[in-house]
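Thread title: Can someone regenerate the structure for this chain?

I was given the following input by a collaborator and told the matching structure tokens would be attached. They weren't. Posting the sequence so someone can regenerate them.
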Amino acid sequence: MKIGIDKMGIYIPRYYLDIRDLAKERNIDPDKFVIGLGQSKMSVNPISQDIVTFGVLAADKILTDEDKKKIDMLIVGTETGVDQSKSASAFMHSILGINEYCRSIEIKQACYGATAALQVAKNHILVNPDSKVLVIASDIAKYGINTSGESTQGCGAVAMLVSRDPKMLEISNESVCYTKDVMDFFRPNNSTYAIANGKLSTNTYLESLEKVYYEFSNRFGEKDFSAICFHIPYPKLGLKGLKEIKREDLLEEFNNSIMYNKEIGNIYTGSLFLSLISLLENSKKIKANDLIGLYSYGSGAVSEFFTMKVVEGYEKHLSIKENQKMLENRVKLSVSEYEEMFFSKIEHEKEIENKEGEDVYLKGIFNNERTYARKI
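Best answer:
Regenerated them for you:
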């Protein structure tokens, strides 16, 4: 049975900060961010938007009423959950109006969570071939004003509908996972922001890549990859990864795969799949039956190398014009506007205005309960 990604949708907030402006404001050479990180812009969200609204708005772009009837599992991969007990997927399930006989869960393992969700979805379809699974990767990467990680922030969501006989990508049965207990990046319960050891995280990312990539080759033989997509905390790290496994022959497609990431920034669990969409929408050479390698990494650290095969007619199911329009129509913020918007705090018991006119928004937190609404 062929199982894989039938549809993919992305949602990015309508505001962004030019990374050059941030560098100048922080008295840093812009080339350190633009060339050193490979970053151009980063997405910024208002308080009326969070990972729940991101995920719903991404899913809205791809789901039909028939899909909602057949979905019997909804999995959210995130490391910026909105509640310590209740899953973000439970909120999304309600807002999306999905079949009530549905398993809704949230998976956490840093940036790896959505890949775990995708593999769980695949295994579910294997034993329930008529069902569909909605996988959503939704996150807000936020490190604080004037911190070392400030230039690698971002936010957004990727929604993927998994089914048998997929229209876009077939997930193979071949994969290799690797775990190493390391404190390269973590967020204790008493901390608003993550604590990162940048050098250790970079080294662990590259070490883990070597482990899973070469073990994959040992187990399953050398593969004729048309492209390899990476988890992209920032584009230059993915490039280091490509060189680490000596696959500079795939540089052209790598550059296609990071075009959206450069414009959006780090979206944690969704970064790998944003890269995959970027590849499919910007490559002139990817064709049916091409094999794509994928490297997923989540600090702490868990990693996986796996593959997907491009399905005949996949290009008919891309949203190139819509996604490019979404990026082009964003509003540029000054550094002071970004600081005020991105780091503003929600006032409890006070209704939040949907100034952006989004179809779905966070209405407020009342009696400690998050309340969402659809625009009427």
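The chain has a mean pLDDT of 97.
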